Amino acid sequence: MYFTMTEIKTNIKREDRINLSSSDLSFTVKPKEFKKYLSVFYGKTRIMEKLDFMSQSSDVYIFSGVIRDFFFEKKSSYPRDLDVVVGNGKLESIPTDYLRQVEYSVNQFGGVKLKEKDKTVDVWQLKDTWGIKMKKAEATPQELVNTAFFNVSAIAFDYGREKFIVSDAFKSFMNTRILDVVYEDNPFPDLCVVNTLYYSRKLNCKLSNRLSSWILNHYHKEHDYSSVQIKHFGIIKYSNTEIELFVSKLR
Same domain for 220 and 249? Predict the structure, then answer.
């Protein structure tokens, strides 16, 4: 089951909409539909129940890939991973009885990686977001979206208040379909190289000059891009030769 953009736009009250409008684009969605979208993929787990529980005592933000899939209606997508950022409070808001029923480990942000069935949820505190710490920025949801590497990722969803937090960079992508870099510092440059190829094909979009320059400066032929893909995707999507050819065309 998928919610198409036509279904989302049907019978939407004006006050419930997010409007990403510009001179050449008017794009509206109903935030409540995003929660329904989440329930399609996570409803058979206890993940939604725990998000509801956590949002009662903490600000909870959904970040990254699942929002991209929702906005761009990729019916072939099957979002298994969910990034959850806790704005205030502590990670102790995750009930211990839930932790006893799932696999969990410490993630790269010092938070918790939860695995339930075939779904993975990364939970960390907003103040521990890598980009916020590097920038020494205030731990706010607005700063969170500005730490995204790609403009297409520069959006978050306030779960408790049921509203999207949208950056100008994300609006720019919606208008131009040009993939760009937002925050250039990144702890995983090799993954950024692979993901640039991945998103350019998945979203059928062009690259900005700035992103192309970033790739040319950070691509290294001798690096092991296969292990990066296995860790992130679970499979090797692109050979090193294919990645090298992609980068060579950016020159």
Answer: yes
Q: What is the pLDDT along the chain (251 residues), one digit of tens a residue?
A: 333 333 333 333 333 445 554 433 334 567 888 888 888 877 767 778 878 888 888 899 999 788 888 888 655 556 667 899 998 766 555 655 555 666 677 676 677 888 877 788 888 999 999 999 999 999 999 999 999 999 999 999 999 999 999 999 999 999 999 999 999 999 999 999 999 999 999 999 999 999 999 999 999 999 999 999 999 889 999 999 999 999 999 99
Q: How many residues does the chain have?
A: 251
Distance from C-alpha of 183 to C-alpha of 185, rounded to nearest angstrom: 6
55 and 159 in contact (C-beta within 8 Å)? yes
pTM for the whole structure: 0.83
Of 128, 154, 176, the residue that ends a domain is 176
DSSP β-ladder status, 26-29 and 119-125: unpaired
Q: Count other Cβ atoms within 10 Å, centred on residue 250.
A: 15
| One domain, residues 126 and 210 | no
State whether 60 and 151 are in the same domain.
yes
Cα gap 243→186, rounded to integer Å: 19
Give the domain extent around 218.
188-251
Q: Domain of 97: which CATH number? A: 3.30.460.10
Q: Is residue 46 part of a domain?
A: yes
β-bridge mates for residue 20, sequence order:
27
Which of 176, 210, 232 is the endpoint of a domain?
176
